[in-house]
Amino acid sequence: MCSVEGIGKKGGMRIGVIKGGGGGASGGERVDKLKKSSRMKVWIIRATTSVLLWTCIVQLTTLGETWGPRVLKGCPSCFSHQDSSVSAIEDKLPSVPARVIPPKRVYKNNGYLMVSCNGGLNQMRAAICDMVTIARYLNVTLIVPELDKTSFWADPSEFQDIFDVNHFITSLRDEVRILKELPPRLKRRVEMGFVYSMPPISWSDISYYHNQILPLIRKYKVVHLNRTDARLANNGQSLDVQKLRCRVNFNALRFTPQIEELGKRVIKLLRQNGPFIVLHLRYEMDMLAFSGCTQGCNNDKVEELTRMRYAYPWWKEKIINSDLKRKDGLCPLTPEETALILRALDIDKNYHIYIAAGEIYGGDRRMASLAAAYPKLMAALDYLVSLESDIFIPTYDGNMAKVVQGHRRYLGFKQTILLDRRLLVDLIDQYNNGSLSWIQFSDTVKETHERRRGQPSKRLVIPDRPKEEDYFYANPEECLQQRDGQLSST
């Protein structure tokens, strides 16, 4: 008489062993044979099951997080007994959109490009966009850019401290391969000093990089570009090149989640009190020392700024006539001048003003006029808040003013008042000496700036004088959706 008893489960399959009964010698032999046969069957079943299980595990691991849930979801028996209360809870949860990662671009890698950015954050931001574009059209692998740590502010931040590095890499993977560091063998060579390093020529066409830089990368495997500001020309590039620069700037270069969250909190606080203005007031000590602009400063301050200018050897211009530079519109407006302009533009004094700047040179004394005219001043967070403000007003034409201006154009031509400093300082002087009445002064200021509010416009092109033409990142017109027909020429 025989019976089958379960001895356990393995991989969802029940394994059994046959037990025999009966007596006598021949019966014992039969029992022994049955036992041996049963043990063999058990071993075969166990071995087969183990192989099947291991194969399943390997396959599921390979499929990973992307396909795993789909496999389970597609299996009718997996969730057939799911509790209805769990379904009800899941229905109430907000759906999170799946992160779309573009497919990798497949191409023959010509080598590796390392870059060290120079300048302030917004100068480096534009440079990173150029370097990604150059790497893509040279078919080389870009190493995550190194940020400047030797500028006036000596900021120790790494790329990943400012920008979401994983988003930067994955969001561009259909265009260019980006790595956080060189492969080990090449990294060791670079650490030993075996790397070809050079500054590329400023305002160069993409063909320069094909003809001059690509052969060097192929020869040395790794090339390090040690200066990156303004290394790609504003104009004369293909539409694909220009659009990729915009894609990097407006989509791939996203701040870290912590910075984004802080920006949202500040913007929410500002919005609770109605419209707000971001005033990019470039009246910091280093800016005044560099530009040589000393309007409103006493003799002690002028001497201090002059000493600072001579202390930095890479600031090449030493002897500067502040009055002439101001009349040419090459100086940042002072806080006192800015207060006059805001009033002349009929900016509501109840608007909150967010100062996007460092420490204002001269402190409370220089800010007194502006604070009296606009008592609801606030300190700065800069870029994120500047993008979201109702009005953005830069008082000097620096890199932040340019990049934010371009980004606000991209977001729908949000109002950005671009001050004509050369005209304004003349009007201010006339008003201060009594040559112009307040009404004449205000009307002229408003009329002058009616077409200087960030509307669609053609980018100014000056052949062979790229520094004097409109900066690409201030007006990336190839990437902007045209409104009301063609872009104006003003």
Automatic annotation (TrEMBL):
Keyword tags: Carbohydrate metabolism, Fucose metabolism, Glycoprotein, Glycosyltransferase, Membrane, Signal-anchor, Transferase, Transmembrane, Transmembrane helix
Any one GO molecular function term: glycosyltransferase activity
Tree of life domain: Eukaryota
A Pfam family of this chain: O-FucT
Residues spanning the membrane: 43-63
Example GO BP: fucose metabolic process
GO CC annotations on file: cytoplasm; membrane
Pathway per the UniProt entry: Glycan metabolism
InterPro entries named in the record: FucosylTrfase_pln (IPR024709), GDP-Fuc_O-FucTrfase (IPR019378)
Localization, UniProt: Membrane
Family label: Belongs to the glycosyltransferase GT106 family.
Protein name: O-fucosyltransferase family protein
Lineage of producing organism: Eukaryota, Viridiplantae, Streptophyta, Embryophyta, Tracheophyta
